[in-house]
Amino acid sequence: MQKVVVLGTGPAGLTAAIYLARANMNPLVIEGNEPGGQLTLTTEVENFPGFPEGIMGPELMQNMRKQAERFGATFQRGWVTKADLTKRPFTLTIDGSEQIQTETLIVSTGASAKLLEIPGEKENIGRGVSTCATCDGFFFRGKKVIIVGGGDSAMEEANFLTRFATEVRVVHRRSELRASKIMQDRARKNPKITWSLNCTPIEVIAGEKGVTGLKVKHNDTGTEEIIETEGIFVAIGHRPNTAFLQGQIKTDETGYIVV
Ligand code: NAP
User: Fold this and answer.
1) Which residue range or ranges hold the FAD/NAD(P)-binding domain (predicted)?
2) Which one of 82, 168, 175, 259 counts the least CB within 10 Å of its CB?
């Protein structure tokens, strides 16, 4: 029986693990399919306090993990498929079979990338469709790519992709971007970034060798266009990983736990 289990190894989970370990609570930290969380998928982190020159996302997460380990947190790889929170101690089912009981549970499972849910998208993941520019950008050296989204992630990834691609076209469903001013300005100043605003993606077009284009609808005129591209990076936000709680904890309409 565990005193406390932490689910997730993103910044929230590792911060909890550091504090628990330093309080002699011997936390067990369950590490899922994306160890280190979303920051491991990013490049430079400029706004984490304490790093005036910035720090690379994966390095920041490695440091946090080492810090938790230093004070005695233990780590186990696995995916929680079920959690029974109806009686104490709580019971967690890991990878469908192993069971762990714990007096206290800290849920810091973060979120996973959202998809557009349009025809041609899912079947072409890994064939030109990606949700991770830092992981896959390298494969698009000398090619034209599209990034879908108008938030900070889309701006950051668009800039990053210009290291490899000849042109990065931002496709966004509204005429205004959601991204912060500093990120917008940086993207707008980049001569390799072009813009298709007020355009809704409606279909991923692909052939035998993978993606060849993205069909979009111009919202003002209703006309459709196929933008030629070999890579489509989807950067439209994230969905919380709370499905395993199966309604045992109050969540908002998007699935985030109400705290
Ligand atoms: P976000 O801010 O939620 O932006 C998501 C973007 O995707 C929005 O522009 C949204 O359009 C669009 N979108 C959502 N669903 C869509 C759909 N089904 N079809 C087409 N477009 C869709 O997500 P994010 O950019 O991942 O950022 C998440 C958080 O992390 C934000 O708070 C952001 O500031 C932060 N962040 C910060 C940095 C940084 O360097 N400071 C970097 C990355 C992220 P609408 O605008 O029309 O809703």
Assistant:
1) 3-259
2) 259
Nearest ligand 1 atom, CA 152: 25
Token pair, residue 227, equals: 């933008």
- Number of neighbours of residue 178 by Cβ within 10 angstroms: 16
DSSP 119: T
Percent of the chain at pLDDT > 70 equals: 100
Domain 115-236: CATH class, spelled out: alpha beta
Question: What atom in ligand 1 is closest to the CA of residue 180?
Answer: 34
Q: Distance between CA atoms of 159 and 192, rounded to whole angstroms?
A: 9
What pLDDT is recorded for position 33?
87
Q: 2-112+239-245: what fold?
A: FAD/NAD(P)-binding domain (3.50.50)
Model confidence pTM above 0.90: no
Q: What is the pLDDT of residue 231?
A: 98
